[in-house]
Amino acid sequence: MTTQDDAPFSYEGLDRVIHEKARLGIMTSLVAHPKGLAFGDLRALCGLTDGNLSRHLQVLAEAGLVEINKGYEKNRPLTTCRLTAAGRQRFLDYIEVLERVVRDAAAVAGPVGRANEGGRKMKLKPA
Questions:
Q1: What are phi and psi of 116, to 5 degrees?
Q2: 8 A C-beta contact, residue 3 and residue 126
Q3: How far apart are CA 90 and CA 123, in angstroms?
C-alpha cells in the first residue's frame, strides 16, 4: 500500500463524488448558504438544467452530503436543498486537499511565465 509520503501527489482526499464540476458548484453554493437554497435558486447559481441538477443532487444525497426537502409554500411546491453536517465536513476536507494541490503545483511550476526554462528537469517536491 502506498502512503502519502511515498506518493505525495496522489491526493487521496480528492473526493470523486464532489470533484465533478457540476457537483463542485452545487456544494460551493450550498456551503455559502447554510440554511439551504430553493431548487430554482440553486439551478440559477450553478447554470444547470432541471434534469442535470436533479441527477447531481441525487448522487450527493445518496452519498449523504445533501438533504433534499420537498414541501409547499403558499400552496406551491417547493424543493429546498442544504448540506448535511457530514456533507459540510467532507466538503471542507476536500477543499483542504484542493488547496494543497494548488500550493504543490505553484511550488513546482515556479514563477508565472518562467516554469521549466531551458528544458531543465524540475525536482518534484510537495509544498
A1: 55, 50
A2: no
A3: 32
Distance CA 29, CA 57 (A): 12
The average pLDDT across 54-71 equals 98
Using a pLDDT cut of 70, give the percent of the chain over it: 83
Rounded distance, CA 83 to CA 90, Å? Answer: 10
Residue 80 near residue 69 (C-beta atoms within 8 A): yes
- For the entire predicted model, the pTM comes to 0.80
In the chain, the number of structural domains is 1
Q: Which domain holds residue 62?
A: 16-100
Digit-coded pLDDT (tens) for 15-53 = 899 999 999 999 999 999 999 999 999 999 999 999 999
**Is 84 domain-assigned?**
yes
